């Protein structure tokens, strides 16, 4: 896209607010829609963003809000980053299937009646998905080209895949599977690092994948603006790492000694981690990198170092 695209962010929560701030600072016209009214602090943090209250589960409200926005601006891209807000299957279906259906229908309605929107041109739709849709849990390397067997997934994750299918059937739409989002205000691993027992029993190597919230937001804006994007990207940093590696690194940054480690396999003490079971998966990001995207926080070290300083 040759001009600064106008972007509608749907679901302006932890990630969405960062998208709004970064895109607005970069000169994009930004509209934000979410279920609740933003606080005065949220509004003042991004003064150029135009906020709208919209529940994606209400198709009439979705159509009306999108129509209002389309009446004053050409919408070039939509970033859908609605979260489930709960662990139930219903919550996942509402956010990732029904909500997506309503928004896509609202966008199609907008195209039919908006004088601002070029005839027949639909906004690029970016759907924020999750690397949790991969059922593999034995430390495998995975990427966008890995075929997923939905029968191996819990019902909640299948709802995400169903949302992805709705999006990938749409011309020019993009699915972005984000790994675990961290950043300011999300300090679960710091809490874990501080509370490690001594001695520490390790019975498996648990692989972790993450993306700093700033890089997640930047990547989504990047995918909303580049020419001819692919349909699917994994948005994760360069360094899938074992959880214990990160926890020990964090303890060093926090000035804490590391506990003694006792390795066990099948309940029997062993001399090293060699041969221990591996859990979770490792996600590659080569396809995203191939688009020219560069990370501000390429590994957990760059991302967590400032968080440790603010401990």
Describe the model.
The protein has 311 residues and is an alpha/beta fold. The chain has a domain at 7-182 and 211-236 and 282-296: NAD(P)-binding Rossmann-like Domain (Rossmann fold). The chain is 37% helix and 22% strand. It contains 10 helices and 16 strands. The strands form 4 sheets. It has a 7-stranded parallel β-sheet with strand order 3-2-1-4-5-7-12, with helices on both faces. A 4-stranded mixed β-sheet has the order 6-16-10-13. The protein has a 3-stranded mixed β-sheet with strand order 9-14-15, with no helix packed on it. Helix 1 (14-25) links the parallel strand 1 (7-10) and strand 2. Helix 4 runs parallel beside helix 5 (155-168), helix 6 (188-194) crosses helix 8 (243-253) and helix 8 packs parallel to helix 10. The model has no long low-confidence stretch (mean pLDDT 94).
SSE inventory with pairings:
Elements lengths: L6 E4 L3 H12 L4 E5 L5 H6 L4 E4 L5 H12 L6 E4 L8 H25 L10 E7 L7 E5 L12 H14 L5 E5 L1 E3 L5 H7 L5 E3 L1 E5 L1 E3 H13 L6 E4 L5 E2 H11 L7 E5 L2 E3 L6 E7 L2 H4 L10 H10 L2
Parallel strand pairs: 1-2, 1-4, 2-3, 4-5, 5-7, 6-16, 7-12, 8-11, 9-14, 10-16
Antiparallel strand pairs: 10-13, 14-15
Helix pairs in contact: 1-7, 3-4, 4-5, 6-8, 8-10
């Amino acid at each position: 896209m040759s001009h600064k695209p106008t972007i509608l962010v749907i679901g302006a929560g932890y990630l969405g607010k960062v998208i709004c701030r970064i895109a607005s600072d970069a000169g994009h016209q930004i509209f934000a829609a979410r279920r609740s009214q933003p606080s005065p602090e949220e509004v003042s943090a991004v003064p150029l963003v135009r906020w709208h209250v919209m529940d994606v589960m209400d198709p009439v409200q979705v159509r009306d809000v999108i129509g209002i926005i389309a009446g004053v601006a050409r919408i070039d891209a939509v970033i859908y980053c609605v979260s489930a807000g709960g662990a139930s299957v219903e919550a996942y279906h509402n956010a990732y299937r029904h909500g997506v259906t309503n928004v896509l229908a609202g966008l199609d309605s907008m195209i039919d009646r908006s004088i601002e929107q070029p005839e027949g041109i639909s906004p690029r739709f970016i759907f924020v998905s999750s690397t949790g849709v991969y059922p593999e849990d034995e430390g495998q390397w995975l990427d966008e080209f890995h075929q997923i067997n939905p029968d191996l997934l819990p019902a909640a994750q299948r709802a995400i895949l169903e949302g992805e299918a709705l999006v990938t059937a749409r011309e020019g739409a993009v699915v972005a599977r984000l790994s675990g989002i961290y950043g300011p205000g999300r300090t679960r691993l710091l809490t874990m690092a501080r509370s490690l027992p001594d001695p520490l029993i390790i019975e498996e190597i648990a692989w972790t994948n993450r993306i700093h919230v700033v890089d997640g937001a930047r990547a989504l804006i990047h995918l909303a603006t580049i020419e001819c994007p692919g349909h699917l990207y994994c948005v994760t940093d360069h360094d899938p790492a074992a959880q214990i590696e990160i926890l020990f690194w964090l303890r060093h940054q926090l000035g804490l000694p590391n506990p003694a480690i006792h390795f066990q396999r099948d309940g029997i003490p062993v001399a090293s981690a060699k041969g221990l079971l591996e859990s979770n998966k490792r996600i590659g990001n080569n396809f995203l990198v191939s688009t020219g995207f560069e990370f501000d926080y390429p590994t957990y070290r760059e991302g967590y170092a400032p968080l440790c300083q603010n401990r």
